[in-house]
Amino acid sequence: MSHPSPAAHDRGRSAPAPLIPAWDDPEPLAVGSAPVPEYGSGSLADLLPTLAAGMAVPGMTAAIPELTEADRNCVFLIDGLGWEQLRAHPDEAPFMTSLLASSRGGTGRPITAGYPATTATSLASVGTGLPPGAHGLPGYTVRNPATGALMNQLRWKPWTDPHVWQPYPTVFQLADAAGVHTAQVSSPGFQNTPLTKVALSGGTFHGRLTGEDRMDFAAEQLAAGDRSLVYTYYAEVDGKGHGFGVDSDPWRGQLMYVDRLVQRLAEQLPPRTALYVTADHGMIDIPFDEQHRIDFDEDWELRAGVALLGGEGRARHVYAVPGAEADVLTCWREVLGEQFWIASRDEAIAAGWFGPHIDERVYGRIGDVVAAARDDVLIIASEREPKESAMVGNHGSMTPVEQLVPLLQVRS
What we know:
- By secondary structure, this protein is α/β, with parallel strands linked by helices.
- The chain has helices at residues 47-54, 83-87, 94-98, 103-106, 119-128, 132-135, 162-165, 171-177, 194-199, 211-223, 236-244, 249-266, 300-303, 325-336, 345-350, 360-363, 386-389, 400-403; strands spanning 9-10, 13-14, 72-78, 111-112, 141-143, 150-152, 181-186, 204-207, 228-234, 273-278, 284-285, 293-295, 306-312, 315-320, 340-344, 369-373, 378-380, 393-394, 404-405, 408-411.
- Helix 9 (194-199) links the parallel strand 7 (181-186) and strand 8.
- Helix 11 runs antiparallel to helix 12 (249-266).
- The radius of gyration is 23 Å and the shape is globular.
- The relative contact order is 0.19.
- The model is unreliable at 1-24 (pLDDT under 50).
């Protein structure tokens, strides 16, 4: 709280009144002011249902109205390549830059990732066609209500039955059952991971080590059916962003490489194909100082009443000791409320952060307090999360740099 200076007098004249009265503290960010993803009309969760509906897969809805039907559809997901990063690097990505006007059905607009803007959540949204509140992967780490322990949904630790955790069929499975030729072409190491099983299974998985081999084989798989749905993936743009930062030389080198991959695939598309190039989230670099990196492990106020800290630096799930939920919410708002949108679980749900509906099994996975960064800040945990706390590039929240992703299109 700011305080007016004592009244000063100079030959009978008072000092000017303070510009900010003592009682006029800055207000915490309103929960409703957060830019909620475009669930139902323009999010990652809407992409595959829209494509599958155009191929007459039963039960699918064309949710993104700007897209037009194609007999063969390919989704190339580039991990970590947000809309704003792509637009800021035309020299490194000349081919994708030439496609910017094609994004979102020729509107030249992006779509949104979903909250939180993180890989496990986004891949589950892509593959199931459901928002996080339904598919149930609402963060990097979340509490498992059955055990009370944190569950890492990217690395799937500790082990949890995948089909209990995420019971819905994927769009790939539904398309395969409807007679669509369905395939995933990715790194061999992803073939048997639990995240692949719950988010991207259905049809046939084809492991290919190099990016060039993936592009070539994806084109072959597209041509293998009169109706085809093919997914392919590249991870290292995200990896270099975390390790070195967006716009570092290693990151820009990866962008140059993946731009050539997109062109390679686009030049091999069989007839009647639509290729969509998208991403799971964007990324932002956060400076390494105490103002920008707030260390939970060294902040007694933030730790008070907290049983578990989940999520990641820009999208935290905070699980309170039973009975301390209101106190934790109040404290986090007082300490961080000018830089983060701070919501109770029910407030975040009501605001639609995780989608229009929350499955009962998902409710307890969401934090008692949910903190989404607006400013260029992180809540790190240097002792319990040393590797994550050392990352240069970060993501997770609802700011445009993290949330907006391309939906570039090439048609043959």
